Structures are given as C-alpha cells and as structure tokens.
Amino acid sequence: MTEAPYQKLTGRLFLELIRLPVKLASAMPFALGVLYAWYDQRGFNGVNTLIYFVGQLSIACFVTGFNNVQDYYKSKDEHYRQKGNIIGTDHLNPRRVMALMLALLAVAVLAGLILVWRTNLVLLLIGGAAIGIAIFYTFGPMPISRLPIGEVVSGVTEGFGTFFIAYFVNVPNRPLALDLSWQSFSLYGSVPVLAKLVLVAAPIIILDGNIMFANNIGDIQEDITNHRATMAVYLGHDRALAIYRWVPVAAYAAIIAAVFLHVMPLATLLVLLLWPLIHRNIARFLQVQVRRLTFKTAVNNLLLTAGAEVLVLAGWLVWQQV
C-alpha cells in the first residue's frame, strides 16, 4: 500500500507547529527588557532592538518546531506519533520541517553575531549558551526536556535570558563585559545590577517555567510511556498539583519585593489587581489537567502578568516624560 503524500506546510499549520500563543508569551520578557533599559539607564538602541527581535523570534520558533520533530522521532508510542504530535496528525514531512527550523536557527545565529560585533564579546558566551540549551532541550541521548530540570532551564533561559539580552543591547553601561587580548582576558560585571535584573525578571522566570510544568503535569502518563523523566513524573500527580498552586504566588511575591526594594516603580503594584483572574486560572487547571482544555490557563497567567507589567512600566515612563 502506497503511503499518502505529505501535506504542505501552510501558514496555519506553521503557526500551530510553533504554538503561536507560546510565542506571544516569549515576547513579554523582550518587551520588558527594552522598557526596563530605558527606565533604569535611559538606554535605547533601535537598531540593536530590531536585530534582537528578529533573532529572538527566530530562535523561539526554532525551539518549538525542533522540539516537535525530536518528539516525533524519539516517541516510543506510535499512537502519540500519529495522534499526539502535529507532524503525525497533519502528516507533515519531518525532514522539511527540520530544514525550515535549521534555517530559522541560522537567522538567529547571524543576528546574534551582529549583536556581538555591535556590543561586547560577552554576548557571544550568553547567546551561545542559550542556543546550546535550545538545541539540547530535546536533542541528544539525554534531552533537557526529558529531565526534571526542564521547567527550571526553560524558565531561566526564556524568562531571564531574553529579558537580560534585551536590556543588555540597549543600555550604555552594560552589567557584564568581556575583554580579550592575545595574552589575557577579563570578565567583569556588577553584582548589584545583576541581582536587580534577576528580581525584575523573576515573575516572568517563574510563570514561564510554570507553563512547562503545566504541560508536563497534563502529560504524566504519556511521558512515562515515552520515557520522559520530567519533574511532574518524579513528583507524581498529587504532589505536582500541590506545588503548582503556589508557583504563581511566588511570582506575585517577587513583584511586591521589586517595588519594596525600589527596583520597579510603585505603580507596578497595580498588577496585583489581576490576582483574582490568576487564581481562577489556577483553580481551572487544578480541576482538569488536559492540554487542549486547560493548558492555556498557564500561558494566560504569564501573558496577563507580564503584559500588565509591560503596560504599567510603559505608562509610567510616558507619565514621567509629560
């Protein structure tokens, strides 16, 4: 029997392949980083911002598409390959999808190299680490996504890494720098500034990692079948849910701490008004852990919180200029 021909990767299928809502979530730390650069140092570089936006969007799309291809090939469950993965369900050519993802990776690498040339060599180390994580998140004999550190790595890389680079390429006084000559090198930075940036990004770091946590909670049985040792698998269903309910609380505690320590404007406390919506999303997920029904609640919590922080900070900056 002849196998049916592969479907064409249409625009609609491409958006499903890269999970567009998750890409919107990854845009939040980028926007916050750009705004915070202006709030903290009155720093803004339009060319660097545009180059990084292209690079960040490319790597974000690459990660999700590449993950889908790797999960398709590595799956031990034939039912998942054909019914639980978009490459199987929509009968896409995995080689062509991979070729497209590698093209996006090349765009991201090129954008990164241009930014290294325009800023400082230390960005080569930071960007190289981020791209390495993006590749080995689902690639290799022990992919990061199949280990119990996946949520932490995802949150730190996307939540802090994106925010930090967006801040880094815009400010005149950079918090990290690498000087290199034929005989020596020196890496130096400001611990107080780095600590401040971690605190500002903490809500996004936490809620970004929580998206992966929610995904893995809903996939516990599937992950066991496909030999994925995620944090949710290690904790078990009940303990994972017990922790999940408190993760957003930590994110909102970080917002309060950032205002109390004067690293974010007082108006940021307006974000706390969203807590009833956040709590409702938590409750919905605790009732039903099915990806197509409630996974979006974790994404919505990040979009609501980070989006509100971005709007409040932008409004504060505009008000300060009036």
TrEMBL record:
Pfam families in the cross-refs: UbiA (PF01040)
Broad class of the protein's primary localization: membrane
Record's keyword terms, sorted: Membrane, Menaquinone biosynthesis, Transferase, Transmembrane, Transmembrane helix
InterPro entries for the chain: UbiA_prenyltransferase, UbiA_sf, UBIAD1
Involved pathway(s): Quinol/quinone metabolism; menaquinone biosynthesis
Localization annotation: Membrane
Residue ranges of the TM segments: 20-38, 50-69, 97-115, 121-140, 152-169, 189-207, 249-278, 298-319
Membrane topology: Multi-pass membrane protein
The keyword Ion transport is assigned to this record: no
PANTHER family: 1,4-DIHYDROXY-2-NAPHTHOATE OCTAPRENYLTRANSFERASE, UBIA PRENYLTRANSFERASE DOMAIN-CONTAINING PROTEIN 1
Name of this chain's protein: UbiA family prenyltransferase
